[in-house]
Specification:
- There is one protein chain.
- The chain has 297 residues and is α/β, with parallel strands linked by helices.
- It folds into 2 domains: 212 residues, 3-Layer(aba) Sandwich (Rossmann fold), CATH 3.40.50.300; 60 residues, Alpha-Beta Plaits, CATH 3.30.70.
- The protein is built from 11 helices and 13 strands.
- The strands form 3 sheets. Strands 5-6-7-3-8-9 form a 6-stranded mixed β-sheet, sandwiched between helices.
- The two termini are 35 Å apart.
- The protein binds adenosine-5'-triphosphate.
- Adenosine-5'-triphosphate binds next to strand 2 and helix 1.
- The site of adenosine-5'-triphosphate has 11 residues, from strand 2 and helix 1.
- This is ABC transporter ATP-binding protein.
- Pfam families: ABC_tran.
- It comes from Rubrivivax gelatinosus (strain NBRC 100245 / IL144).
- GO terms for molecular function: ATP binding; ATP hydrolysis activity.
């Protein structure tokens, strides 16, 4: 095992009856790095999170958290987690929850610092049950970070957060990584993964399909996106040279192309009504869709 890694999974296989959720997955997470864990529904992301938290053991392979067995007291003391749902006592206030949780940790963060990182200063005295869904998510985030974890697992942390809270959460996650935490974040928001992740791991069918910085993942798909108003039907657009996908985007159509200039020439030759033309570089979302498409093709 890699002693320097904050988390290491090696050759992990995990099955639920006949369903192979993880199929020989190996992954090491470094301190100070935010890793975005991406993948379609059923890819195995939550299974990996469950293994890191010691909820279950792999049927084959090994998982270590800071050299400890996941779920052990030592590993739990070093891990903070924000899962997709949490059952917290409705009658306790935000500050009471945080004080209680901090009391489990030897080097817990001061309450004011935790409140500030999660944007909860104004809500410290409010009962948890009287908070909105997004505010409750921020409390769950605060609980995950209050013990100064060396490994922070965030399972779809932005779900239910408004745009401003989401940006604030991203900033807080960045601060925690800069302090040295190894952060693993699952998300379906590729904009979030792109904005926040130092590294992106794309899972599909329990295996790693791609692993690299957002820029490296984008570079694996030498595609560009072309949007325009066109009178051609989608089938004609899909058949243009270089085009790998065509789909409606509001009034316009979005084409993904491997050869932008060639596609553009053919498009203009075939349709003299083309308007509102816009050519953009590949976003992480396009690259991920392309990689998944190639896998299933
Ligand atoms: N408790 C369970 N019993 C049986 N099968 C399960 C169980 N939990 C997960 N699975 C199956 O294991 C596979 C991986 O599921 P997992 O929840 O890890 O995926 P995921 O990537 O987290 O998906 P999502 O994005 O939908 O949350 C899926 O095929 C799922 O149906």
């Amino acid at each position: 095992m890699d002693e320097a890694a904050a988390v290491e999974a090696r050759d992990v296989v995990h099955c639920y009856g006949p369903v192979k959720a993880l199929d020989g997955l190996s992954l090491a997470l470094e301190a100070g790095c935010v890793t975005g864990l991406l993948g379609p529904n059923g890819a195995g992301k939550s299974t990996l999170v469950g293994l890191l938290l010691g909820r279950w053991r792999p049927q084959a392979g090994r998982v270590c958290v800071c050299g400890q067995l996941p779920g052990s007291l030592a590993a739990r003391a070093l891990t903070g987690a924000m899962l997709q749902s949490a059952a917290l006592a409705a009658q306790l206030t935000v500050a009471e929850h945080l004080r209680l949780h901090a009391s489990y940790h030897r080097a817990a963060r001061p309450l004011e610092q935790t409140l500030a990182l999660a944007g909860l200063q104004a809500l410290a005295g409010r009962r948890y049950g009287a908070l909105s869904g997004g505010e409750q998510r921020r409390v769950q985030f605060a609980l995950a970070l209050c013990g100064r974890p060396r490994v922070l697992v965030l399972d779809e942390p932005s779900a239910a957060l408004d745009a401003e809270s989401r940006r604030a959460l991203w900033q807080a996650v960045r601060t925690l990584a800069d302090e040295g935490a190894a952060v693993l974040m699952t998300t379906h928001l590729l904009e979030e993964a792109e904005a926040l992740s130092d590294r992106v791991v794309l899972l599909a069918a329990g295996r790693c399909l791609a692993d690299g910085s957002p820029a490296q993942i984008r570079a694996r798909v030498a595609a560009q996106s072309l949007q325009c108003l066109s009178s051609l039907p989608l089938e004609r657009l899909r058949a243009l040279p270089g085009v790998t996908a065509a789909e409606p985007r509001g009034r316009r159509v979005a084409l993904r192309t491997q050869a932008a200039e060639t596609t553009l020439r053919a498009l203009l030759a075939a349709d003299d009504t083309v308007a509102e033309l816009e050519l953009t570089a590949t976003r992480l979302e396009d690259a991920v869709l392309d990689l998944l498409h190639r896998e299933t093709a």
